Prior knowledge:
Metal_Hydrolase; eight-stranded parallel sheet; 8 strands; Metallo-dep_Lactonases; Amidohydro-rel; hydrolase activity; Amidohydrolase; globular
Amino acid sequence: MQEPAILDSHLHLVDRTRLDYPWLSGAPALDRDWSLESYATEARRVGIGGAIHMEVDVADARIEDETGWIEELAASGSFPILGAIAACRPEDPEFPAFLERSAARQMVVGFRRVLHVVPDGVSQSDLFRQNIRLLSGPDLPFDICMLARQLPLAIELIDSAPNTRFVLDHCGVPDIAGGQWDDWARDLAELAKRPNVCAKISGVVAYGGAGWTLDELSRWVSYTAETFGPGRICWGGDWPVNTLGGGLSTWVAATRAIFAGWSAEERAGLYAGNAARIWKL
């Protein structure tokens, strides 16, 4: 039976002629342009029918320019970009005005602030948490991108904003190559008790080291999926970061194998239906 088309909830695109990416100089394996055309060619071959663009941590002054660029790409019709998860800075006193502008843009379906590149205290400030609570108004979810050691901070942030919806990126960024299971598994299970949180099955091929195997990866992915349940997970490609661990086609094949025993309904939710619901597509 043919699998349903995948909705990729985590696509990064990079154009250094359009935007500024301060972090790229420290990531030589990724420091180039990553175009929609290149992604679309591979995506179509592996059954991806549409995507949500995930912000790429552009320079602060270019955040709204990034959204404008994604709006242009979506309007071109070359590949279905169904929404944009925009960068944000909830630690900024001007966040409420930014939120009002961004929420008025049809393309914006959620927000993210990468929190493992800033001091831990950023997400603990009263201002940050107050602004995260504001997301409950337009009901736009916040993607949590933290390292496994920071999951207790994620729990604190979620508890401070019980009416805001959250999506945990990359299975909570486990240290798969280092085998650091116990704390991650405990904290993930605690986090999953919060009903306003979903988890993104994404990113993990970049954490398994050069020699990761399907069995190895399956342990971490399956635990995340079982802990949150089939209705609270969605699939993300994390292209081009996934090229650090085999690439998009390899990740799709691994996911298909890991979830082969799930029912057709459960797989349809993982690959597209849950994401469409989470981001109201």
